[in-house]
Specification:
The two termini are 20 Å apart. It is globular and about 65 Å long. The chain is of the alpha/beta class. It has 2 domains: 235 residues, TIM Barrel (Alpha-Beta Barrel), CATH 3.20.20.60; 52 residues, no CATH class. It is built from 13 helices and 10 strands. The longest helix has 19 residues.
C-alpha cells in the first residue's frame, strides 16, 4: 500500500465561489466542495454546476465533492453532474450498508466508462456518522465486500462524522471528546481489518478553541488516523503540522532503521536503540514514518 499523504480535508461550500477559490490554494492536502450540509435545499441543484466549474481552477491539493446521502432526492443528480475530468474523489455521507457503497460505486463506474474516464480512478470516501453505520462496520467494510468485488475497489479510506453521529444518538460532544474514543478505535480497527488506509477523523467544531483543536488532532494521530477534516482555513496548518512527523520523530526513526538493518544483516531481530527494544513491528513503524515524510516532501508539503 502506498504511503498516504492526506492529512487535511478542508470543506468549502460549493455555492460560495470566493470561498471555494480560496480553499483550493490554502495548502490542504484535499478540498471537499460541499453539496450537502453547507448548501440550502433550494440551491442544491444549481450548486452542482458551480462545483464542477471549480474543478478546472488551479489548486494545491486534491479536489473532492461531497454529494448528498444515497437516501435523498439529490444524490443521483449530484453524481450525474459531477463525474467529470478533474474530480479526484467523492465523499458519501451517512453510509449505513455495504449496498450503499456498491450502488454508488456501480453508478460512478458506469459514468466513468460513458465519459471516457479511467474506471476506478475516482475515489469514494464514505463517512460513518450514524448509529446504523457504526453497528454495521464489519459488514460495510468486511473482507468479503473487498475480495468479492469484481472491479477496482475505489474505497481507499473512510471518515468519521462526529457531529451527525452525536446528534443521531443524543450524545453530548464534550470538549474533551472522551465519549468518542471507542468509536474512533472501532474505525481504526475496521479500516485495518478491511485492508484500506487509516481513516480520516471528524471536524473540530469549536473554531475559537485553538488549544482544543491541537489536543484533539494529536489524539487523532496517536490513535492511528491519517488526517482530519477541517471546516475553517486556520485549522489546516495545525492539522498538517501535527500529522507531519517531527524532527525528533524523524531522527529516531532513522536511528531505528539504520540500527535494525545492521543488526538484521548480522542475524539479529531484536536490539536496543536508546534504551528501548526494537524488533520488527518497531522497525516497520519507523519505516512508515520515513516513507510518510518522503511523500510529504515529494509533494512540496
Amino acid at each position: 500500500m502506498a504511503t498516504p499523504v492526506l492529512r487535511s480535508f478542508l470543506f468549502a461550500p460549493g455555492n460560495h465561489a470566493r470561498r471555494v477559490e480560496k480553499a483550493l490554494t490554502l495548502g490542504a492536502d484535499a478540498v471537499i466542495l460541499d453539496l450537502e450540509d453547507a448548501v440550502a435545499t433550494a440551491e442544491k441543484a444549481a450548486t452542482r454546476k458551480l462545483a464542477v466549474e471549480a474543478l478546472a481552477r488551479p489548486r494545491t491539493g486534491k479536489a473532492y465533492i461531497r454529494v448528498n446521502a444515497i437516501g435523498t432526492e439529490w444524490c443521483l443528480g449530484d453524481l450525474m453532474e459531477i463525474v467529470k475530468p478533474g474530480l479526484d474523489g467523492i465523499v458519501l455521507p451517512k453510509v449505513e450498508s455495504a449496498a450503499d457503497l456498491r450502488t454508488i460505486d456501480w453508478l460512478i463506474a458506469n459514468l466513468e466508462r460513458e465519459r471516457g474516464l479511467p474506471t476506478g480512478g475516482i475515489d469514494l470516501m464514505p463517512i460513518i456518522e450514524t448509529a446504523a453505520g457504526f453497528s454495521r462496520l464489519d459488514r460495510i467494510f468486511g473482507a468479503r465486500s473487498l475480495k468479492d468485488y469484481g472491479g477496482p475497489w475505489r474505497v481507499k479510506r473512510m471518515a468519521f462524522g462526529a457531529a451527525d453521529f452525536t446528534n443521531d444518538v443524543g450524545m453530548t460532544w464534550s470538549p474533551g471528546e472522551e465519549e468518542l474514543t471507542s468509536l474512533r478505535v472501532n474505525l481504526i480497527v475496521a479500516s485495518r481489518a478491511a485492508g484500506i488506509e487509516p481513516p480520516i477523523d471528524t471536524v473540530w467544531v469549536r473554531m475559537q478553541d485553538v488549544a482544543g483543536l491541537k489536543t484533539s488532532v494529536e489524539r487523532s494521530k496517536h490513535l492511528g488516523f491519517q488526517g482530519r477534516m477541517c471546516i475553517h482555513p486556520d485549522q489546516v496548518k495545525v492539522v498538517n503540522e501535527t500529522f507531519t512527523p517531527s524532527t525528533e520523530e524523524e531522527t529516531r526513526a532513522r536511528k531505528i532503521v539504520e540500527a535494525f538493518k545492521a543488526a538484521e544483516a548480522a542475524g539479529q531481530a531484536a536490539i536496543q536503540v536508546e534504551g528501548s527494544m526494537v524488533d520488527y513491528p518497531v522497525f516497520h513503524r519507523a519505516e512508515r514514518v520515513l516513507a510518510t515524510l518522503a511523500a510529504i516532501r515529494a509533494k512540496g508539503g
